[in-house]
Amino acid sequence: MSINIKVLNSLAFLVLFSVTAYAEMDIETVTIVGSQEDVAGSATVLSNEDLTKMVDTDIHKVLSAVPGVFVRSEEGYGLRPNISIRGTAPDRSSKVTLMEDGVLIAPAPYTSASAYYFPTTGRIHAVEVLKGPSSITQGPSTIGGAINMISTPIPEVTSGSITQEVGSDALSRTHVTYGVNSGNLGALLEVHENSTDGFDSIANTSGNGDTGFDKSDILAKLRYTSAMHELTFKYLELDESSDQTYVGLTQSSFNADPRRRYGMTKYDQMNNDGEQTSLAYVGDFDVFTLKVTSWSNDYHRDWFKVDKANSTKAHGVEDGIDEVIAAANAGDTNAQAILDGSLAVTVKLKHNNRFYTNEGMQLSLSKQMGNHDLTFGYRDMEDSESRLQSYECTDQGSNGNLSALASCSTGFTGSNNRLRVTQATAWFVQDTITMGDLAVTVGHRSEEFDKTEWRWDDGVPTRTQLNSSYPKNSSGDYSTTGLGATYDMSDDLKLVAGFHQGMSPVFGGDAEQADNMELGFRYSKDMRALEVMYFTSDYQNLVGVCKNSSGGDCDAGDTFDGGEVDVSGIEVSASTILEGNGVSYPMALTLSNTSAEFQESFDSDYWGTVAAGDDMPYLPDQQMTAVVGFVKDTGLSGNIRIAKYGSTCSTAACGMYEKIDSYTFVDLSLRKKLNDKFSLYSVMENATNAEDIVARAPKNGARSQKPRSVKVGFTFSF
Known about the structure:
The protein is mainly β. The protein has a single domain, classed as TonB-dependent receptor, beta-barrel domain (Maltoporin, Chain A). Helix content is 7%, strand content 53%. The chain has six helices and 39 strands. It has a 22-stranded antiparallel β-barrel. A five-stranded mixed sheet has the order 1-6-7-4-5. A hairpin with a 2-residue loop joins strand 17 and strand 18. The relative contact order is 0.14.
């Protein structure tokens, strides 16, 4: 597989830059990565210090510092991210292994991996991203990699902190932690509250309507520690209400006002709540180390939103919201009038009401024998998704006013009244063999899962009339193998190479599989660091899963084969710290160049019309993030972040109104440390107030990035 000219140019630029722009990375011991320098693959650790520089509460902004990771924006706040690692399909982050403290946190990682729940970024202490052959120790998705969010740790001494901020669009955020540590016992209580009225307005609505969210997390930890044993209990309660919509804008509407929603979306709202508990044991014995974790996650969400913008197909216009937007983009004046609220139609909204469970047990056993560092892992779990979904309708008058909501069809049949359950077991073994300057890591992972689906035809939210075609059962077993190596060319330069087979499970279809390779180097000396990685992923069978967010003429949950796809690219990260006259200037640059092309031509209700050589949707060919800051001895510090994303499309065919041009955002931050306990800060996001399209989701509806916004706050430690 050849490297294109853009890749070579990007690499040449970074090599020239790195002559004066390296920095020693801030490495700390973390849950799955350990020492970043020793990983037989690519890994990035974002420490708590990194996260507090820009006071990020949006995971999109956080992950912009990681090469090879792309995040498609949706509502501007990062509530439900769409994350891609090394060319995996980004939709709802379903092809990425997501964890908090090493525990899978997707609502149902095997049954329904779409991440409609994501940990609240504002309370996360650190983030680590693992790519390459070492990712097979995580799973179940092992093609792109894994992301692990690390929650606030129990402090070493009794202490606490308060962060309070306010900002644009009635933003308010309160983050309070208090932890105690007394002998063998430690505990932590954490509260995070975040709300805003939102930056969009809603047409034909008194007061322009709320388009923001109200999100609350309460976390508690209790830990017992002895000389050889540690036992930690963790409990998290979460709640969110957000006035968000799936409905984007036609191009003409976007040009007129990119931050004004259609009036028919006034009732759109997501409500979710959940509980997570875990009990983790670590035993440090003389001959081995044992880690055992059991967990139980329950999550419920009801996203009530426009499904049919013209449910009676009046005025010669189809009913699906994406179809109406597509027709308006194509010049249908009636379709545009329906969206604007100047034609009377019936609008049908759907309760995407779903209940999830995710519970299980996992263990790892580690032992060093001579020059071997062995780890064995095992996981046994069950997850489920239950749907009880119904509809309500509202009549939109020719003046754009909406009537009160009323039940307009029973629902509760077929896919709207179903239960899916997966029982899965997985095990892995990994051995790192050190032979002088050479370290070779060999790993193997095995996955087995049994899946069952039931559907009922009750027509009401009960389950007595089982559909005659159900239950349906399926099973699968997959094995993946990885080989990685690092070689110390010198004290400062390390070569890295690896190969691994990757897999991503799909409910209702064959698992997605790909062969992955990477080759690169890491350089670190004094205040400078540089890492360059070339990677490839050759998909045998790219799999698409129909979702409301993806569009397409398909039923949510159906799977579609995208055939063979070749992905390749270059990832570069470089940083340095310059010092002089009582001021230090930290600088960092990450750059990714990715090519992802279909290798076959076909027509699909999900993928659309695909020709061999077409690019995969929603994967920009280039992206770059640069951060430059200053730190004074007086306690004053600041940063500027510039992120640029290359152009892409919402479909492989890339029609006129499916293009997403390149866009840039600029963020600024300033912090003043008054003393060891108290500091003030301010942040300006999208300082240029750019109005670029950052997504078309579902595929025809344009969405803008968040406008210029300002927040100010303080942090007090005690």
